[in-house]
């Protein structure tokens, strides 16, 4: 896509993972995504938020591996 895949892009912006984002990340984080929202998400103390974020990262990484093999 010609975009630097940093943490912000991977977690809150990349359209490739939009379906996973809908399931695992609260809309307030990825709507008008910013570094500030990313920092708030990554520093969350909420167990459900942390679990969902870890699950998102797991499935997005699997999806990326599959795409890279094509």
Account of the protein in words:
This protein is mainly alpha-helical and 70 residues long. The chain contains five helices and no strands. α2 packs antiparallel against α5. The longest helix has 23 residues. The model has no long low-confidence stretch (mean pLDDT 95).
Brief summary:
The protein is mainly α. The protein is about 70% helix and about 0% strand.
Q: Could you give the topology of this structure?
A:
Blueprint: H1 7-13, H2 18-24, H3 27-30, H4 35-42, H5 47-69
Helix pairs in contact: 2-5
How many helices? The count is 5
Mean pLDDT: 95
Low-confidence stretches: none
Gross morphology: globular
Top keywords for this entry?
single chain; 70 residues; mainly alpha; globular
């Amino acid at each position: 896509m010609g975009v630097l895949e940093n943490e912000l892009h991977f977690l809150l912006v990349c359209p490739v993972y939009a379906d996973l984002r809908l399931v695992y990340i609260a809309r307030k984080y990825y709507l008008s995504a910013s570094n500030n929202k990313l920092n708030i998400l990554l520093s969350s103390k909420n167990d459900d938020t942390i679990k969902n974020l870890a699950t998102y990262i797991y499935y997005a990484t699997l999806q990326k591996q599959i795409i890279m093999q094509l």
